[in-house]
Amino acid sequence: MKTTPLFIHQIQQGNPRAFEELFDTYWEDLVNYGYKLLEDRQASEDIVQELFLEIWDKHENFHITNSLDVFLFSCIKKKILRIFRDQGIRKKHIESLYRLTSKSESPIKELLHDELMGSIIKTLGHLPNKEKEVYILHEIQGYSVKEISNIFTVSEQTVRNQIASASKKIGSAVIKLLIP
Predict the structure, then answer these.
(1) Per the database record, which ranges form the HTH luxR-type domain (predicted)?
(2) Matching CATH topology for 5-79 and 104-178?
(3) What is the pLDDT of residue 28?
(4) What is the Cα–Cα distance from 69 to 144, expressed in whole angstroms?
């Protein structure tokens, strides 16, 4: 694969042959990488297709500071982490709704539950992105500290620190709600 400055420049200029070579060279490897993380071939293909569409649509701004491999695989990893984050939050909402509708609870319990969930979701929205992604992967998706450290290529201690920090912030928000 030509990852020379000339090749990158050809992509920036919108050269269809250079883009086609990029696509043909990386398509299968990126889809397989995505499939290993998602365990869903179609979703993986959709993510890779989305990445190539973004590159084509923004080819004038296509700048690589490290290797092309690292850039492309990092983009796929970030897209998958966003999916995990979004699915985790959605899953929590569905589970909460199911619990609320499956039990006949008093209106006070329902109100308290709704306020708690709202407070947690609001706090999640204010967390730094990495911290939020780590917390969701661990607490909602059930990933182990080791698995998360492998996904983000950081130390296990860094993951533990991010989980502890997010848990502390969420805990504080819940306590403020319960003890005004």
Answers:
(1) 142-169
(2) no
(3) 94
(4) 27
CATH architecture of structural domain 104-178: Orthogonal Bundle (1.10)
Whether the pLDDT of residue 75 is over 90: the answer is no
pLDDT digits over 44-67, tens only? Answer: 999 999 999 999 999 888 877 667
Pick the CATH number of 5-79 from 3.40.50.300, 1.10.10.60, 3.40.50.10540, 1.10.1740.10: 1.10.1740.10
pLDDT tens per residue across span 84-128: 777 765 566 555 544 544 444 445 455 556 677 777 788 888 889
**Per-domain residue ranges of the chain:** 5-79, 104-178
pLDDT at position 95: 57
pTM of the model: 0.50
